[in-house]
Inverse folding.
């Protein structure tokens, strides 16, 4: 019955770790709970004792269980404080580790962000030049606007890139279609039939 208490005594001088301390605390709580239940059982047994001598023997057993409960009550706060200290140290180590990872990654992110800013500046300048030459309405109807103004998230960036790529692919396909002399537009079938008849 005292196995948990003995285990705590043996481990007191060793290096603390969260898992070990949690096991010790759980064992100590279980030991204290079992001792409390045993005290109640022994009290009932003492009341039914056939003689004073027999009751005295039961008193000694009760005293042993009371010592266990008192020992657990004193040992538990110490173990819980040690567990809190271990958790604080583990958290500090984890924070330092993750900070190191972020610090190592940031130069690559910074370089990519500045490169993206320069590329976006060139795209916006090209679009402004197109607006000055052929007008904003024509540019809005016929040219894509690949400038990116959202957060750099994978899903949103992938969606915007796919939309711009599709627009550019459609524009290239339209430019490759034959047009008739009446200039009906790229979807006119008359020019296509005329080219085929030749």
């Amino acid at each position: 019955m005292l196995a948990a208490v003995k285990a705590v005594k043996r481990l007191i001088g060793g290096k603390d770790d969260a898992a070990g301390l949690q096991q010790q605390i759980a064992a100590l709580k279980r030991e204290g709970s079992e001792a409390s239940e045993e005290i109640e059982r022994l009290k009932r047994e003492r009341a039914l004792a056939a003689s004073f001598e027999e009751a005295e023997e039961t008193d000694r057993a009760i005293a042993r269980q009371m010592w266990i409960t008192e020992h657990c009550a004193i040992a538990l706060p110490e173990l819980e404080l040690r567990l809190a200290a271990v958790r604080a140290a583990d958290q500090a180590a984890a924070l330092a580790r993750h900070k190191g990872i972020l610090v190592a990654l940031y130069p690559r992110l910074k370089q990519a962000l500045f490169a993206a800013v320069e590329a976006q500046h060139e795209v916006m300048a090209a679009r402004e030049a197109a607006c000055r030459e052929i007008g904003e309405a024509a540019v809005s109807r016929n040219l894509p606007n690949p400038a990116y103004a959202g957060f750099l998230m994978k899903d949103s960036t992938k969606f915007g890139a796919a939309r711009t790529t599709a627009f550019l692919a459609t524009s290239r396909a339209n430019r490759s279609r034959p047009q008739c002399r009446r200039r009906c537009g790229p979807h006119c079938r008359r020019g296509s039939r005329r080219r085929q008849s030749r």
Remarks:
- Residues 71 and 129 are 84 Å apart (CA to CA).
